[in-house]
Amino acid sequence: MGQLLLWALLIVPWFLLIPLDSKRVRHFSSVAFFTIFLTTIYWQMAEVWHWWDVTDNVFFLRNISSFNFGLLPVTTILIFYFTYSNVWLFFGANIIIDAFQAFIISPFIFQRFGLYKMNNMSNFGLFLLLLSLVPIIFLYQRWYETK
């Protein structure tokens, strides 16, 4: 079941972008790839400092979960797509979504299906880690738009 979930988290979210305006999706694709870059660094830090251990994965990934390349960038695009024009809505939506991931999705789905196991980081620590990305990617998108 874990393998099915991993592949679904890698492939299925991309289909959510099909009905959206492709020009606006392309506008936010850079920040999605930047988010992948930053979270990849976080996954490497997690391995070194034993924040969590990846226990199940797709065959071509070792220590970074497949949702880092499927669900995460698509969620980033969707949040920017729908909330970027209002800074308070953007930050509020991110707080809610990050809390949902840290306190519900991580323990009750990802860990229960054996995708990873938390070690030296609590769910609150994960929430703070996820939240630390928000101002960085927001400022990146603002900077990107000036180029």
Automatic annotation (TrEMBL):
Keywords: Membrane, Transmembrane, Transmembrane helix
Record flagged with keyword Membrane: yes
Domain of life: Bacteria
Residue ranges of the TM segments: 32-52, 64-82, 88-110, 122-140
This protein's name: Lycopene cyclase domain-containing protein
Organism taxonomic ancestry: Bacteria, Bacillati, Bacillota, Clostridia, Eubacteriales
